Amino acid sequence: MFTGPGYRLQRPTWLPSYIPELQGLRGLAVLGVVIYHCHPRLEGTWSYRASLWGWAGVNLFFVLSGFLITSILLETRARPHYFRNFYARRALRIWPVYVLVLVVCYLNAPWFIGPTVLEAIRTAPWWAYILFLQNLFHLSLPPAIGPTWSLAIEEQYYFLWAPIVRILARPWSLAVFLCCALVASPLFRMSHLSWITPTHTLTHLDGIAMGSLIAIALDTVPFSRRTWLALGLTGMVVGFPAAFTIAGGTAFLDTALTAGFGGAVLASIASTGARNPLNAVLRRGPLAFYGRVSYGMYMTHIMAFIYFGWFDRMMDAHGTLGNVAVVAFRLAISTLVATALWYGFESRILKLKRLFA
Fold first, then answer.
1. Is the CB of residue 124 less than 8 Å from the CB of residue 113?
2. Of 344 and 115, the one with more pLDDT
3. Which long-range contacts (CB under 8 A, 24 or more apart) does 84-90 make?
4. Which is nearest to 105 in space by CA: 137, 62, 134?
């Protein structure tokens, strides 16, 4: 808890420091993205229409990230070495896999990016990726490193959000800032300004802002656990139907999805530990496992698709059955790569976080 003039933040007593259900939601998000990138292979199957919505997993990632990171910032902002610890821990979580992916892609440019390494540097400028700015320019992102646009948005947001959380002492001032972001994002999407790219940060702030707002609200508004659960379910009931109907194809589609995913995250938080099948599925089993390896899977799955493209070509002659086999193979190989990356690389590096506790 941090105290100051007219200021009070207190985590609800019923809310544990670790919420395992969120791991399952993260698993759903990454599986949605992977299946979306397989959707051409699912045409003609019962799952094709559902696979077209897999891209929305990125929105769910944004809400989860906004909640988790803002919770950390609120908890630690009165402690010594606030900035050093936060940015160091973020770097340990993001940079190792990110740099590894970039190095592999550029050194194998003829396979993953372009005809030569030099040509790859010109078409996919390395400095933009190093500075996490690739989403702000009208660049043609190579498929293998295309998913990094969302990572750039998160890094830009937290680079600015950490000092804002530190400086703005009162919860209402933080909430006003976030509400402005929620309102501004669809307006920027409607503006069609020439400098606004499809992946521009200003057009994708909804999810992160919603997650951050949930973190602040839980620590400041003394609602009961049941009330928070009701609010979460309301967000889902309003947001998802709106996304599939009136908001579909408009600048407010992401807004509707943000309401739905924000509600899902809030409902999972408010019901954490509940003994029912849904919470059990989110807490443990395949979804929780995919949540654990989600970052590596998100960053490497398209690389795996490209590297094992020979299997796609083998199955091309077998019609729908061959396409389903390709999707199953892609999911299996992406899982293996992400698992190896987690246990052999990520988890070992993350042990260094203890130096910045």
1. yes
2. 344
3. 84/356, 85/356, 85/357, 86/158, 86/162, 87/162, 88/355, 88/356, 89/353, 89/356, 90/155, 90/158
4. 134
Higher pLDDT, 104 or 120: 104
Confidence label for 51 from pLDDT (cuts 50, 70 and 90):
very high
Which of these, 109, 117, 212, 107, lies nearest to 158 by C-alpha position? 212
Band (pLDDT 50/70/90 cuts) for residue 6 is: very low
Count Cβ atoms below 10 Å from residue 195 Cβ, excluding itself: 10
- What residues does 3 pair with on adjacent strands? 8
Q: Which residues fall within 8 angstroms of residue 235, CB to CB, at 6 or more apart?
A: 259, 260, 262, 263, 264, 266, 267
pLDDT tens digits for range 231-268: 999 999 999 999 999 999 999 999 999 999 999 999 99
Nearest Cα to Cα of residue 34 among 314, 294, 238, 209 = 294
Buried b (16+ CB within 10 A) or exposed e, 66-92: bbbbbbbbbbbbeeeebeebbeebbeb
The position carrying tokens 């390896």 is: 293
Cβ pair 286, 331 in contact under 8 A = no
Task: Enumerate the β-bridge partners of residue 8.
Answer: 3
Could you tell me the pTM of the whole model?
0.94
- Of 4, 298, 311, nearest to 166 by C-alpha is 4
Show Cβ contacts of residue 32 under 8 Å, excluding neighbours closer than 6 positions.
53, 54, 55, 56, 57, 60
Q: Which two tokens stand for residue 281?
A: 């599925």
Q: Give 321's Cβ-side CA count (13 Å radius).
A: 2
Length, in residues, of the chain: 357
Place of tokens 């506790």: 357
Q: What is the pLDDT of residues 304-329, one digit of tens each?
A: 999 999 999 999 999 999 999 999 99
User: Which residue is it, tokens 């010594």?
Assistant: 80
* 3-state secondary structure (DSSP) of residue 8: strand
**Structure tokens that stand for 204 in this block:** 């994708």
Q: Is there a contact between 258 and 230 (Cβ–Cβ < 8 Å)?
A: no
